[in-house]
Amino acid sequence: MADNTIRFDDGASYEQMMGRWSALVGDLFLDWLAVAPGAKWLDVGCGNGAFTARVVERCAPAAVQAVDPSPGQLAYARTRLAAGAPVVWTEADAMMLPVPDAAIDVAVMALVLFFVPQPARGVSEMVRAVQPGGVVAAYHWDILGGGFPFAAIGHAVKEAGGSPRLPPSVEASTLEASEALWRGAGLERVEVTTFTVQREFRNFEEYWDSAATSNTLRPMFAEFDAHGITALRAATRKRLGDIGGSLLVSARANAVRGVRPTL
After folding, report:
1. Cβ-proximal residues to 40 (8 Å cutoff; 6+ apart), any chain
2. Which of 49, 66, 160, 216 is the 20 to 30 A CA-CA neighbour of 103?
3. What is the pLDDT of residues 133-144, one digit of tens each?
4. CATH of region 11-148+164-200+252-259
5. Cβ neighbours of residue 234 under 8 Å, at least 6 residues apart?
Protein backbone atom coordinates (compact mmCIF):
# COMPACT_ATOMS: atom_id res chain seq x y z
CA MET A 1 0.00 0.00 0.00
CA ALA A 2 1.30 3.47 -0.85
CA ASP A 3 2.33 5.72 2.01
CA ASN A 4 0.22 8.88 1.65
CA THR A 5 1.53 10.57 4.78
CA ILE A 6 2.23 14.26 4.21
CA ARG A 7 5.69 14.97 5.67
CA PHE A 8 7.69 18.17 5.97
CA ASP A 9 11.41 17.51 6.23
CA ASP A 10 13.07 20.53 4.61
CA GLY A 11 12.91 23.65 6.76
CA ALA A 12 14.20 26.01 4.08
CA SER A 13 11.65 24.86 1.51
CA TYR A 14 8.90 25.03 4.11
CA GLU A 15 9.88 28.63 4.85
CA GLN A 16 9.39 29.64 1.23
CA MET A 17 6.16 27.68 0.90
CA MET A 18 4.42 28.10 4.26
CA GLY A 19 6.57 29.68 6.98
CA ARG A 20 5.83 33.23 5.84
CA TRP A 21 2.12 32.51 5.67
CA SER A 22 2.25 31.07 9.18
CA ALA A 23 3.90 34.19 10.55
CA LEU A 24 1.20 36.40 9.00
CA VAL A 25 -1.61 34.48 10.67
CA GLY A 26 0.49 33.95 13.79
CA ASP A 27 0.66 37.67 14.51
CA LEU A 28 -3.14 37.98 14.44
CA PHE A 29 -3.45 34.82 16.53
CA LEU A 30 -1.05 36.12 19.19
CA ASP A 31 -2.93 39.43 19.35
CA TRP A 32 -6.13 37.45 19.90
CA LEU A 33 -4.62 35.32 22.67
CA ALA A 34 -3.12 38.35 24.44
CA VAL A 35 -0.96 36.26 26.77
CA ALA A 36 0.91 38.23 29.43
CA PRO A 37 4.74 38.29 29.34
CA GLY A 38 6.62 35.71 31.36
CA ALA A 39 4.46 32.72 30.43
CA LYS A 40 5.73 29.21 29.74
CA TRP A 41 4.72 28.13 26.23
CA LEU A 42 4.44 24.81 24.44
CA ASP A 43 4.50 24.99 20.62
CA VAL A 44 3.25 21.64 19.30
CA GLY A 45 4.30 20.88 15.73
CA CYS A 46 6.67 23.83 15.61
CA GLY A 47 7.98 22.87 12.16
CA ASN A 48 10.82 25.12 11.07
CA GLY A 49 10.19 27.54 13.93
CA ALA A 50 8.35 30.29 12.04
CA PHE A 51 5.62 30.64 14.65
CA THR A 52 7.95 29.90 17.57
CA ALA A 53 10.05 32.88 16.56
CA ARG A 54 6.97 35.12 16.62
CA VAL A 55 6.19 33.97 20.16
CA VAL A 56 9.72 34.83 21.30
CA GLU A 57 9.80 38.18 19.49
CA ARG A 58 6.33 39.37 20.50
CA CYS A 59 5.33 37.71 23.78
CA ALA A 60 8.42 37.84 26.03
CA PRO A 61 7.96 34.24 27.20
CA ALA A 62 9.82 32.83 30.19
CA ALA A 63 10.36 29.63 28.21
CA VAL A 64 9.15 27.87 25.08
CA GLN A 65 9.27 24.14 24.49
CA ALA A 66 8.96 23.65 20.74
CA VAL A 67 8.08 20.12 19.61
CA ASP A 68 8.13 18.57 16.14
CA PRO A 69 8.59 15.04 14.74
CA SER A 70 10.90 16.15 11.88
CA PRO A 71 14.67 16.38 12.51
CA GLY A 72 15.05 18.36 9.29
CA GLN A 73 12.54 20.98 10.34
CA LEU A 74 14.08 21.26 13.80
CA ALA A 75 17.57 21.67 12.30
CA TYR A 76 16.35 24.72 10.40
CA ALA A 77 14.41 26.01 13.43
CA ARG A 78 17.56 26.04 15.55
CA THR A 79 19.11 28.57 13.16
CA ARG A 80 16.32 31.17 13.40
CA LEU A 81 16.86 32.60 16.86
CA ALA A 82 19.87 34.19 18.50
CA ALA A 83 21.87 32.32 21.10
CA GLY A 84 20.26 32.58 24.50
CA ALA A 85 16.67 32.58 23.24
CA PRO A 86 14.44 30.82 25.80
CA VAL A 87 13.55 27.90 23.51
CA VAL A 88 14.13 24.17 23.85
CA TRP A 89 13.67 22.31 20.57
CA THR A 90 12.45 18.73 21.03
CA GLU A 91 11.81 15.93 18.56
CA ALA A 92 8.51 14.34 19.58
CA ASP A 93 5.00 13.42 18.47
CA ALA A 94 1.97 15.64 19.09
CA MET A 95 0.07 12.67 20.49
CA MET A 96 2.77 11.83 23.03
CA LEU A 97 4.23 15.06 24.34
CA PRO A 98 7.39 14.84 26.49
CA VAL A 99 6.01 17.37 28.96
CA PRO A 100 5.06 16.82 32.61
CA ASP A 101 1.46 17.30 33.67
CA ALA A 102 0.40 20.91 34.37
CA ALA A 103 3.87 22.28 33.52
CA ILE A 104 2.90 24.89 30.91
CA ASP A 105 0.89 28.12 30.85
CA VAL A 106 0.00 28.15 27.14
CA ALA A 107 -0.10 25.26 24.64
CA VAL A 108 -0.57 26.04 20.96
CA MET A 109 -0.70 24.33 17.57
CA ALA A 110 0.04 26.46 14.51
CA LEU A 111 -1.16 24.87 11.23
CA VAL A 112 -0.88 21.41 12.77
CA LEU A 113 -4.22 20.03 13.97
CA PHE A 114 -5.29 18.64 10.58
CA PHE A 115 -2.05 16.64 10.35
CA VAL A 116 -2.56 14.89 13.70
CA PRO A 117 -3.96 11.39 13.01
CA GLN A 118 -6.08 11.52 16.17
CA PRO A 119 -6.90 15.21 16.76
CA ALA A 120 -8.78 14.58 20.02
CA ARG A 121 -5.73 12.84 21.44
CA GLY A 122 -3.49 15.73 20.40
CA VAL A 123 -5.80 18.22 22.10
CA SER A 124 -5.99 16.10 25.25
CA GLU A 125 -2.19 16.03 25.39
CA MET A 126 -2.09 19.83 25.31
CA VAL A 127 -4.74 19.99 28.02
CA ARG A 128 -2.71 17.60 30.15
CA ALA A 129 0.40 19.74 29.73
CA VAL A 130 -1.14 23.07 30.79
CA GLN A 131 -1.79 24.02 34.36
CA PRO A 132 -5.35 24.73 35.59
CA GLY A 133 -6.30 28.12 34.20
CA GLY A 134 -3.87 27.66 31.33
CA VAL A 135 -4.70 28.32 27.68
CA VAL A 136 -4.96 25.73 24.90
CA ALA A 137 -5.25 27.19 21.39
CA ALA A 138 -4.67 26.49 17.70
CA TYR A 139 -5.07 27.90 14.24
CA HIS A 140 -5.32 25.98 10.98
CA TRP A 141 -6.13 26.73 7.36
CA ASP A 142 -9.81 26.63 6.46
CA ILE A 143 -9.03 24.03 3.80
CA LEU A 144 -12.58 22.76 3.31
CA GLY A 145 -13.80 26.34 3.02
CA GLY A 146 -11.22 27.27 0.37
CA GLY A 147 -8.93 29.18 2.71
CA PHE A 148 -5.68 27.34 1.95
CA PRO A 149 -3.06 29.69 0.41
CA PHE A 150 -2.78 27.39 -2.62
CA ALA A 151 -6.49 26.67 -2.96
CA ALA A 152 -6.47 28.11 -6.48
CA ILE A 153 -3.98 25.47 -7.56
CA GLY A 154 -5.90 22.70 -5.83
CA HIS A 155 -9.08 23.82 -7.58
CA ALA A 156 -7.31 23.75 -10.96
CA VAL A 157 -6.00 20.25 -10.26
CA LYS A 158 -9.48 19.03 -9.34
CA GLU A 159 -11.09 20.57 -12.44
CA ALA A 160 -8.45 18.88 -14.59
CA GLY A 161 -9.33 15.49 -13.14
CA GLY A 162 -6.44 15.22 -10.70
CA SER A 163 -6.69 13.60 -7.27
CA PRO A 164 -7.02 15.99 -4.33
CA ARG A 165 -4.57 15.25 -1.51
CA LEU A 166 -5.82 16.43 1.86
CA PRO A 167 -4.35 16.20 5.35
CA PRO A 168 -5.54 13.11 7.25
CA SER A 169 -7.69 15.05 9.72
CA VAL A 170 -8.85 17.91 7.51
CA GLU A 171 -12.38 17.73 8.94
CA ALA A 172 -11.01 18.98 12.28
CA SER A 173 -10.07 22.31 10.69
CA THR A 174 -13.61 23.70 10.46
CA LEU A 175 -14.80 26.12 13.10
CA GLU A 176 -17.55 23.74 14.21
CA ALA A 177 -15.24 20.74 14.54
CA SER A 178 -12.56 22.74 16.32
CA GLU A 179 -15.03 24.05 18.86
CA ALA A 180 -16.39 20.54 19.43
CA LEU A 181 -12.88 19.16 20.00
CA TRP A 182 -12.05 21.84 22.52
CA ARG A 183 -15.31 21.40 24.41
CA GLY A 184 -14.95 17.64 24.24
CA ALA A 185 -11.55 17.95 25.91
CA GLY A 186 -13.21 19.61 28.90
CA LEU A 187 -11.97 23.12 28.22
CA GLU A 188 -13.91 26.15 29.36
CA ARG A 189 -14.46 29.62 27.84
CA VAL A 190 -14.07 28.13 24.37
CA GLU A 191 -14.02 30.67 21.54
CA VAL A 192 -13.47 30.41 17.80
CA THR A 193 -12.66 33.02 15.19
CA THR A 194 -11.38 33.38 11.63
CA PHE A 195 -8.35 35.31 10.38
CA THR A 196 -7.85 36.46 6.79
CA VAL A 197 -4.36 37.41 5.63
CA GLN A 198 -2.79 38.50 2.36
CA ARG A 199 0.67 37.91 0.97
CA GLU A 200 2.11 39.85 -1.94
CA PHE A 201 4.20 38.07 -4.55
CA ARG A 202 6.36 39.85 -7.11
CA ASN A 203 4.55 38.00 -9.85
CA PHE A 204 2.68 34.79 -10.59
CA GLU A 205 5.94 32.89 -11.05
CA GLU A 206 6.98 33.56 -7.46
CA TYR A 207 3.63 32.31 -6.21
CA TRP A 208 3.79 29.17 -8.34
CA ASP A 209 7.40 28.46 -7.37
CA SER A 210 6.57 28.77 -3.68
CA ALA A 211 3.86 26.14 -4.15
CA ALA A 212 6.19 23.81 -6.06
CA THR A 213 7.88 22.77 -2.79
CA SER A 214 4.58 21.78 -1.15
CA ASN A 215 4.47 18.15 -0.05
CA THR A 216 0.70 18.36 -0.51
CA LEU A 217 0.79 19.64 -4.09
CA ARG A 218 3.79 17.83 -5.57
CA PRO A 219 2.05 14.43 -5.73
CA MET A 220 -0.84 16.13 -7.54
CA PHE A 221 1.53 17.68 -10.09
CA ALA A 222 3.10 14.26 -10.67
CA GLU A 223 -0.17 13.11 -12.24
CA PHE A 224 0.25 15.55 -15.15
CA ASP A 225 2.64 15.75 -18.08
CA ALA A 226 4.26 19.00 -19.21
CA HIS A 227 1.20 19.98 -21.24
CA GLY A 228 -1.03 19.32 -18.23
CA ILE A 229 1.15 21.44 -15.96
CA THR A 230 0.98 24.30 -18.45
CA ALA A 231 -2.81 24.03 -18.39
CA LEU A 232 -2.83 24.00 -14.59
CA ARG A 233 -0.75 27.16 -14.49
CA ALA A 234 -3.10 28.89 -16.93
CA ALA A 235 -6.18 27.87 -14.95
CA THR A 236 -4.60 29.05 -11.71
CA ARG A 237 -3.65 32.39 -13.23
CA LYS A 238 -7.21 32.89 -14.38
CA ARG A 239 -8.67 31.99 -11.00
CA LEU A 240 -6.34 34.43 -9.23
CA GLY A 241 -7.14 37.18 -11.71
CA ASP A 242 -3.49 37.56 -12.65
CA ILE A 243 -2.90 40.22 -15.31
CA GLY A 244 0.85 40.49 -14.84
CA GLY A 245 2.90 42.30 -12.24
CA SER A 246 2.59 41.83 -8.51
CA LEU A 247 0.04 39.37 -7.17
CA LEU A 248 -1.88 39.69 -3.90
CA VAL A 249 -3.13 36.33 -2.59
CA SER A 250 -5.53 35.87 0.33
CA ALA A 251 -5.79 32.97 2.75
CA ARG A 252 -8.08 32.22 5.67
CA ALA A 253 -7.44 30.37 8.92
CA ASN A 254 -9.77 29.19 11.66
CA ALA A 255 -8.67 29.55 15.27
CA VAL A 256 -9.87 28.13 18.57
CA ARG A 257 -8.94 28.69 22.20
CA GLY A 258 -10.05 27.49 25.60
CA VAL A 259 -9.00 27.40 29.25
CA ARG A 260 -8.28 24.37 31.37
CA PRO A 261 -10.68 24.38 34.34
CA THR A 262 -9.23 25.30 37.70
CA LEU A 263 -9.32 22.72 40.44
Report:
1. 61, 62, 63, 64, 65, 103, 104, 105, 106
2. 49
3. 999 999 999 999
4. 3.40.50.150
5. none
